[in-house]
Design a protein that fits this description.
4-stranded mixed β-sheet; 2 helices
Amino acid sequence: MKELKSVPQKHILVCVNERENEDCCKNVGGEQIYLKLKQYVNANGLVGRVWITRVKCLGFCNNVGTTITIYPECKWFTEVKEEDLNKITEYILK
């Protein structure tokens, strides 16, 4: 086992889970939100300091928007839509 000496300042998990015939984050734009957050990190020189990771179910399935969590703050957001991304990027810059 090897311990990492350098870790990101923030790690953002974006649900992109897909469920057949059920509410799921993939059906409400999870993948698009993930890609937009990745683009934001790249465009603002935050690569390496902010990690954006696609994950499967975070347990808050709905038919409105995806679920996102931000560490180390342990902030959770559900029903996130593309128009909410400005609020998420505020947390990235804190």
